[in-house]
Amino acid sequence: MEKLYYKNQYLKEFSARVLKVEKVNDEYHVVLDKTAFFPGGGGQLCDLGYIDNKKVLKVYENNKTIYHVLDGEVNTGSNVLCSIDWDRREDGMHQHLGQHILSGCFYKLFNANTVSIHLGKEISTVDIVGVLNEEKIREAESFANEVIRNNIDVEFLVPSNEELSSINLRRDLPNTEDEIRVVKIGNLDINACCGVHPSKTSDLKMIKIKKFEKNKGNTRIEFLAGNRAIKDSLNKDNILREICSYLSSNEEEALSGIKNIKALLEEVKIEKKKLEEELLNYEARSLLENNNSNKIIIKNIFKDKSVEYVTKLANRLCERENIVCLFAINNKEKSNIILASSKNIDNLNMGEIFREFSNIVNGKGGGSKNLAQGIAKENNIEEFLNKIYEFCCNRM
Ligand SMILES: [Zn+2]
Hints:
Layout: E1 2-3, H1 4-7, E2 13-24, E3 27-32, E4 34-35, E5 49-51, E6 54-62, E7 65-70, E8 79-84, H2 86-110, E9 114-118, E10 124-128, H3 134-149, E11 154-157, H4 161-166, E12 182-185, E13 189-192, E14 207-215, E15 218-225, H5 227-247, H6 251-288, E16 296-302, H7 307-317, E17 323-329, E18 335-341, H8 350-357, E19 363-367, E20 371-376, H9 381-395
Parallel strand pairs: 1-4, 16-17
Antiparallel strand pairs: 2-3, 2-8, 3-7, 5-6, 5-8, 6-7, 9-10, 10-15, 11-12, 12-13, 14-15, 17-18, 18-20, 19-20
């Protein structure tokens, strides 16, 4: 089987003869006399595409034979026209070479080798030995983009065992009896790899390091290469433009604009807290007005108030002795219930009371002796609170 992808990595269409077809379930595993479909390897995904208008679902290598899994049948002995999903392949080659370049740059600049790599559908990672700081990472990123601009040839060598022993590879050789393929990027990097790469670094156009973090004593670097990096950069430019137009500022002033908004927000939050405090005290006083008895049950249904606010109000009132608050917040779909009592009231348990009367409103919730909270699914909360009011009156 001739591996065309190693001879011309830019081959998008080719014709081949079908040597064998095996039907497995509803799929057809097809062997061709030659193929440009890369079966995957070196961290790179396999190619997809079409063979005689049948969709290629997967390509894999088994015992040195490459199988193309199709969703329809082709005839053994026939000549077929094959086309590769080029966007997928090109993207795969770009991420892959991007990883080689980054690995080479970190090694060349800081003598920091690569521990592991992952080429993902959206983002790829390379793990570099040791903990690297932002400055070093940006230096490597800048060097990687210089390598791209310098349009260095990417050579694909198949050295003999003798030659291999004299080549100073960055990493140990894989343990295999198959022929070993070596990727050489000028004098930046030389490493064993079975993947498919572009023939020159300028194909990549750009490498962008998106993020980095410590990972098991090493540094995990997330990167984008080629079109992915360009798309990301254009998208960021759009986002920044929208931010600037929102802030009515230029790019340089955008960050200080956001910081100003944040500072203002903090001031407003403090002011809001103060006002809420005043409102709570005012509302607590007005709910207690006209109540001369020393034991007071306050029943109230609120509208347009948050659960947080009403709970605070109940807690504020119950800071005094001998108070019971039977509160609800009326919403269309479901209402919130807050039952609270002063700490000195021993013969009422708000949690138990809520549970006992909850069937009236199809309620769910509960709580402790002095505070219960819940939700009422039916809107007869007036009746519900009245029943609890009666119950409490008889015991206070
Ligand atoms: Zn490679």
